[in-house]
Amino acid sequence: MSVHSSTRSSIIQPQQFSSDVVLETQNLSVYYGDFLALQDVSMAFPSNQVTALIGPSGCGKSTLIRCFNRLNDLIDDCQVKGKVLYGEKNLYHPKIDPVEVRRQIGMVFQKPNPFPKSIYENIAYGARINNIQQNMDELVETSLKQVGLWDEVKDKLNENGMSLSGGQKQRLCIARAVSLKPKIILMDEPASSLDPISTSKIEDLIAQLKERYTIIIVTHNMQQATRVADFTAFFNAQESDEGNRYGYLVEYDKTENIFGNPQEEITREYVGGHFG
Q1: 73 part of a folded domain
Q2: Which residue of 85, 106, 265, 275 could cross-link 177, Cys pair, CB 3.0 to 4.6 Å?
Q3: What are residue 236's DSSP bridge partners?
Q4: How far separated are the first and last CA of the chain, in Å rounded?
């Protein structure tokens, strides 16, 4: 199996961040059966910052963030090697409960996926099954206010969440995530299916949410990365000896450096629009 190697390390080390590191990967590789999907990723994520993962399709961005809350556990034949450290804990230690991991590290998907329940129950149901101990009316209101949705839906909380517009549905899903009081919110292309106005609202919301949460976002939209992210990691893909493509981390730095002064030529080509 071919192995990607680089003549220099582009990994930002934890001590270079101005804030504490909340999540870190060490030599993380992901396999689907015998096929390598993501190779040897070592990187750290600073708290209360937005980190964007960019790169062409098939470079492992979504695979990576699904490692962070153990969603890859749900895929047959998926094997994760290496470590994902959340504080002092390796999230892949046998004694770690994946359900608790997903409460601490929430996920917002590309396509808005509200529960087929009332707007109120979209927030309350998840909180109840996760044993969130708080007055439920207060929790619903607080969560909806955090995502700027309260004033739009406060008079129709008993209406089905599926009746909302696309942008409202996505904000409802984000409200559902924050109601569980996570430390980290993962966002996988959260605005790719939305119109420009709804996209702008989501981006504004991300900027507000980082005051309370650490956010890791996958995006194909490089302009979006420049608008919302403090740090950006560029991933690329190459072919193994077995003929399958696998992803690897090329360069990770402050967003302004990735787009304004990248250190790797292939990063410069990608952000310059030459491929992808």
Answers
A1: yes
A2: 106
A3: 248
A4: 24
Token duo for residue 119: 């707007």
- Read off the tokens for 29: 């590789």
Mind listing the pLDDT tens digit for each residue in 135-174?
A: 999 999 999 999 999 999 999 999 999 999 999 999 999 9
Amino acid identity for residue 85 in this structure: L
Q: How far apart are CA 171 and CA 181, in angstroms?
A: 16
Q: Are 185 and 168 in contact (CB under 8 A)?
A: no
Can you read off the two tokens belonging to residue 229?
């992210």
Residue 72 is classified by DSSP as G
Q: Which of 207, 208, 144, 203 is nearest to 177 (CA)?
A: 144
Q: Which residues pair with 26 in a beta bridge?
A: 83
Boundaries of domain holding 232: 14-271
> Strand 50-54 and strand 231-239: pairing?
parallel
Average pLDDT over residues 245-254: 94
User: Is 215 exposed, middle or buried (CB count within 10 Å of its CB: 0-12, 13-18, 19+)?
Assistant: buried
Confidence check: pLDDT of 235 > 50: yes
**51 vs 38: CA distance, rounded Å:** 18
The residues, ordered by sequence, that sit 6+ positions from 49 with a Cβ below 8 Å of its Cβ are: 17, 19, 210, 214, 215, 230, 231
Say if 1 falls within a structural domain. Answer: no
CATH number at residue 212: 3.40.50.300
Three-state SS sequence of 28-71: EEEEECCEEEEEEEEEEEECCCEEEEECCCCCCHHHHHHHHCCH
Total domains present in the chain: 1
Going through 170-244 in order, the beta strands assigned E by DSSP cover 184-188, 214-218, 231-239
Q: Phi/psi of residue 220, each to 5°?
A: -90, -10
Pick the closest to residue 74 from 39, 115, 107 (CA basis).
Answer: 107
Reduce the DSSP state of residue 191 to 3 states and report it: coil
